[in-house]
Amino acid sequence: MGLTVHRFEGHPGCTAMILGGKAKPGCKTVALRADIDALPVEEKTGLAFASENSGVMHACGHDNHIAMLLGAAHILCEIKDELQGNVKLFFQSAEETCHGAEYYVAEGVLDDVDAIYGQHIWAGLQAPYINVQPGVRMASCDNFTITVEGVSAHGSAPHLGTDAVVAAASIILNLQTIVSRNNDPLNPLVVTVGEIHGGQRFNIIANKVVMEGTCRTHSREMREKIEPLLRRIVDETAAAFGAKATLLYEKFPGPVINDHDDLNQIAHDAAVTLYGEESLRELPKMMGSEDFAYFMEKVPGVFGFLGSYDEKSGCIYSNHNDRYDVVEDALKRGAAMHAQFAADYLAAKAPRE
After folding, report:
1. 268 shares its domain with 162
2. Domain boundary among 199, 225, 251
């Protein structure tokens, strides 16, 4: 395609810029993002092009995202003389880590960008439909580690020690009051402790317990309240048992919210231009997360979904399943959506005489 590719030293991913032939001073640049990482899953699709790397497969469909953006690049290069601004192609690694996008923001990938469009192939949506609806789409993702320290003693003499297991159990129960008593019931919120490790032996009062968990919400406002609430419960519950607890709280992506009316309209109209109003379907909000939110905090953005579920072709497995596959017509739709959105955005935002 004759594009100059920019790579990142010691880090996967790349970018390339398509310069519009009708770009004028003050024109806009739109970024199109595709995440590129795989998952530690042994592929069982039986496809002729299945992963050749043992224990690794594109179980979330990011290989489709790569193909879609490459397809869009071909389309946009063919019409670049008509583009009224510039298009930045952006292939991003490490989305599955929850915060791979942070690196690219810090590297200035969006410093010359005015808006960004992203999309995800999705088994929760029937093929061949498209979803670009406004509002909340996915939740934030903040993770935590709680370490509870007590005093060991013989299991037959608990009064001589401080039981870290009992303190930890109470902390787990009390954390749920953040959801049930501190949060508006109309706001989705999850506080989950997914791992707990503690104790040395069946007849020893445990002197240490380590727990790990995650918090998810659609509300930017509630997200800011969770850490102090969690910290208060952890500290004071442990103290009630004579134990000591420490909290490590790490913020990852915020919620994905399509809250820019102009971009929402451009995405909607792009789908309608390509496939008609009947191509659009609504999709429930999700408590899963996407590090595309980091980009949306830097520049205005919109995030869409492309349906991959199709019983006739056997594409019935969810994302992250070892048999996940897609209807390949979705690749064409994804490429077309990227290209149409970019062209329409640049036309809508072009400087006026």
Report:
1. no
2. 251
